[in-house]
Write a structure and sequence with these properties.
Length: 194
């Protein structure tokens, strides 16, 4: 049974995650500041670090929720009874639309800072693997003769390609890719897989 202190710390942790999620969603990852969180949560600055470790850990917690929402969104917008290439295209479109509709939270998935040799926590990688699993199914149907290693690499390559197109289309100043053409561009490139 949890002690009163453990229960309070768990409640504060949940409150901080919710506040951080709102800040990131509304204003982006750069808006996340420990002093603002402490003020809004009604706690001392040091209590944040007792409850969640640091702001990167807090961001990872928010990102895990975003990964879950992203996976649910892609699943919801991908019919299961269509051809494998059509499922891949539908997933890419869903990824694009989720990113456009949840831009700040989506960017936080990839903008978190870590030391070059610091691996993401296992639970975080598990969430990412959930996204890859969605892609892996139709890709394996399209490429039945590929080895498991090649399919895993192809899955990551496909995700990276779609992500890059979406990222550049949402950041028009960098590449000048028109957002209204993004779905068409994804369709054109992905259909070359079949």
């Amino acid at each position: 049974m949890a002690t009163a202190a453990q229960t309070r710390r768990a409640a504060l942790r949940e409150t901080l995650i919710e506040i951080a999620e709102r800040h990131i969603t509304q204003n982006g990852l750069s808006s996340l500041r420990a002093r603002d969180l402490a003020k809004e949560a009604g706690c001392a600055l040091g209590a944040i670090y007792n409850a969640v470790g640091d702001l990167n850990e807090l961001t990872l917690e928010v990102n895990a929720r975003t990964f879950k929402r992203l996976g649910a969104y892609v699943t919801q917008h991908t019919p299961s009874d269509i051809a494998p290439i059509d499922r891949i295209v539908a997933m890419a479109w869903a990824y694009h639309h989720f990113a456009a509709e949840n831009h700040n939270a989506w960017r936080a998935l990839f903008d978190i800072e870590r030391a070059p040799d610091e691996a993401a926590p296992a639970w975080y990688l598990t969430e990412m693997q959930g996204l890859f699993a969605l892609i892996h199914g139709p890709l394996s149907e399209l490429n039945p003769d590929q080895s498991p290693e090649e399919l895993a690499l192809l899955t990551r390559a496909l995700f990276s390609g779609v992500h890059g197109i979406v990222l550049l289309s949402l950041d028009q100043a960098s590449a000048g890719l028109p957002p209204e053409e993004t779905d068409r561009m994804l369709d054109l490139i992905l259909r070359r897989l079949s």
